[in-house]
Amino acid sequence: MKKILAIALSAVAFVAISAVVLAQVPGLFIASPTGLEQINVLVPSTGTVVTNPQIQTVTINQIRNSEGYILVAAGTTVNTTIPNTASLAIATGAITTWNITLPLAPADGQIVKVTCPGGSTTTVAVSATSPQTIVGAGYTSCSSTSPTDAAWHYSAGGNVYYRTE
């Protein structure tokens, strides 16, 4: 009987100590990031096979405060398909007719923004590729003297870009 009691007490003590030790493991989140925290990113040496990887260190600030963008040059009729890697299209010069196609395979919640601080755009036509649709007023022109931004948020549930700005 004393042997069973000793084993039971040992098991209880082990569980209690294990619980205390596990409670000391820090959470996998940062409550108040400063932007200077660093993350190591594994960059494969070839497309999908990691044969000789490089490890790059980036700060949270680089990830949080940067976005992919494309610069669109001046022209008479300019056709721009915004890639999935860009969330901002910036016209750098005057454009007579700017035909913009929103990303073809966007991520759910992706934000796409268009602006023209570099020159006036007489006609702007924004479209999406079927089966995607756009909900919200169109973006029809832009002036470099008071550049107008337009932004769309994508919802994968309905294949819809919603104009939010």
Jot down its keywords.
165 residues, alpha/beta, 2 domains, 6-stranded mixed β-sheet, 3-stranded parallel β-sheet, 2 helices, 11 strands, elongated
Could you walk me through the main structural features you see in this protein, from its secondary elements to its overall organization?
With 165 residues, this protein is α/β, with parallel strands linked by helices. The chain folds into 2 domains: 31 residues, no CATH class; 97 residues. Helix content is 16%, strand content 36%. The chain contains 2 helices and 11 strands, in the order H-E-E-H-E-E-E-E-E-E-E-E-E. The longest helix is centred in the first third of the chain and has 22 residues. 15% of the residues are buried. The mean pLDDT is 80.
Helices and strands, in N-to-C order?
A: HEEHEEEEEEEEE
Structure summary, number of beta strands: 11
**Structural class designation:** alpha/beta
Amount of beta strand: 35-45%
User: What overall geometry do the principal axes of the alpha carbons give?
Assistant: elongated
- Helix content estimate: 10-25%
The overall pLDDT average reads 80
Strand order of the main beta sheet, please? 3-5-7-10-11-9
- Give the helix tally: 2
Largest sheet: 6 strands, mixed
Low-confidence stretches: none
Number of domains: 2
Outline the secondary-structure elements.
Blueprint: H1 2-23, E1 38-43, E2 54-59, H2 60-64, E3 69-72, E4 75-81, E5 88-91, E6 95-101, E7 111-115, E8 121-127, E9 133-135, E10 150-155, E11 160-163
Parallel strand pairs: 3-5, 4-6, 5-7, 6-8, 9-11
Antiparallel strand pairs: 1-2, 7-10, 10-11
